[in-house]
Amino acid sequence: MAPFVKPSEAELERRRTIQINDETVTNISSTDFPGHYPGEDNSWSFETFKNTFRVEHHYLTPAESSFSLIGADAAIANALRRILISEIPTLAIETVYVYNNTSVIQDEVLCHRLGLIPFTGSKKGIREFLRWRRKAEDGTPGPVYDYNTVQLRLQVECTRNPSAAPDEREPTKLYHHAHVYARDIEFVPAGRQADLFQAPEDIIRPVNPDILVAKLRPGQVIDLQMHMHKGVGADHAKFSPVATASYRLLPTITITRPILGRDADKFARCFPRGVIALERVSAAEANTPGSGYEGHEGEKKAVVADPMKDTVSRECLRHPEFEGKVKLGRRRDHFIFSIESTGQWDSDELLLEAIKTMKKKCERLEKQVINMVR
Amino acid sequence: MSREAYQVPTGSQAANPAAVGKSFDAYGGGAAEVGPQMQYLCGDCGLKFQMRRGDAIRCKECGCRILYKERTKRMVQFEAR
Ligand SMILES: [Zn+2]
């Protein structure tokens, strides 16, 4: 068999760039699979992946993180994104027992709002002690124990504030409990939960205590109990551990011919701040024949400073003075992830948990494939 | 069922045995007195008061003729979805 052909670096660059033209997006499908280019070896190899795959961290806070996966296929990046959104378990309010609700907000709407409030508490308690609530054999919800249910209570009554100023108009000053906030929800420990979820660090509590749940007027009452269970985002969005987990491809901007003087200013204004920088044409550049800078020494020229900040608005393609001078694109294998946590997990834990989940799923699939060929 | 056997449902506390913790003013008192008695809310001034059968349908404070019944204290279960 003839030895494999190696494509040139320029050809590889062309293959991994998605072209963004003024009205179309082309070269969108990846072609790095065996048999697409005759004579090339495009079979997947773990060694090559290990050597080329990189992760770059951009910023990290408990609530939000951003990082790049470089050298992975879209299938891997998208699998991670989908696992983040819908397969990492969290604890959320699932059943509400309403004893009284004389507020203007209907029972159904109130319960729906309660379900969407993100809660947090002892990580060990939520992840290791709390388990799924199993279904009974006939498919009905199974029994409730301290290891699969967390009980909460919300009891608020609105009353007049006798010490309010006579000309007061502000309801929150005129009445007590005119606003019901997420912080008014109390944790009711059952069994071993009293030891596991202790105030103030480990108690089950809303992540954002200032979420407005309902508004009340004097004489109105909300009295209800809630049961929390573990669930996944695939079942209901309230169980999703992320507010959003998304990725975008790294934008590329290639200036093919010099953009100088006033045009350079205009070009920089076509992009978000920081994407394009302005530099002076150096003497060496001006003295190089064929560079396009001849006789322009000291003039301003546009250079690409940070394409990651670009939103790919394509504004620069609308102006005739930049025609044929710039090429926009996106790097096919560079995924800029952004994970925003709802608070039960830290954003960095989420990525690790997603990878763990994906690994588990792959192991399950591997077993099935082995069974299939047996 | 004869007319005499029929009992007007009372808004008493017995309907809410699972309620725990504090009790609210808004719940009003029970029907401790003899005979069917209901809690009513005035549509005008918001006063809560009890009325018996045969009483004039009027607020005891302001005389308003529009009265509301209180919500039942029976538990209602919802899914938070
Ligand atoms: Zn009245």
UniProtKB/TrEMBL annotation, chain A:
NCBIfam families from the xrefs? PRK00783.1 (NF001988)
CDD domains registered for this protein in UniProt: RNAP_I_II_AC40
Q: Which parts of the chain are coiled coil?
A: none
Question: 4Fe-4S: present as a keyword of the record?
Answer: no
Chief place of localization: nucleus
- Name the chain's protein: DNA-directed RNA polymerases I and III subunit RPAC1
Listed under GO cellular component are:
nuclear DNA-directed RNA polymerase complex; RNA polymerase I complex; RNA polymerase III complex
Keywords in alphabetical order: DNA-directed RNA polymerase, Nucleus, Transcription
What InterPro entries does the record point to? Answer: DNA-dir_RNA_pol_insert (IPR011262), DNA-dir_RNA_pol_RpoA/D/Rpb3 (IPR011263), RBP11-like (IPR036603), RNAP_Rpo3/Rpb3/RPAC1 (IPR022842), RNAPI/III_AC40 (IPR033901), RNApol_insert_sf (IPR036643), Rpo3/RPB3_RNA_Pol_subunit (IPR050518)
Q: Where in the cell is it found?
A: Nucleus
From TrEMBL, chain B:
Q: Please give the family membership noted in the entry.
A: Belongs to the archaeal Rpo12/eukaryotic RPC10 RNA polymerase subunit family.
Answer whether the UniProt record assigns the keyword Transferase to this protein. Answer: no
Q: Name one GO molecular function term.
A: DNA-directed RNA polymerase activity
Q: What is this protein called?
A: DNA directed RNA polymerase
A cellular-component GO term for this protein: RNA polymerase III complex
**Could you list the residue ranges forming a coiled coil in this record?**
none
The superkingdom listed in its UniProt entry is: Eukaryota
Record's keyword annotation contains Transmembrane helix: no
GO BP annotations listed: DNA-templated transcription
User: Which Pfam family, any one, appears in the UniProt record?
Assistant: Zn_ribbon_RPAB4
Entries under InterPro entries matching the protein? RNAP_P/RPABC4, RPABC4, RPABC4/Spt4
Membrane-crossing segments per the record: none
Location in the cell = Nucleus
UniProt KW keywords: Metal-binding, Nucleus, Zinc
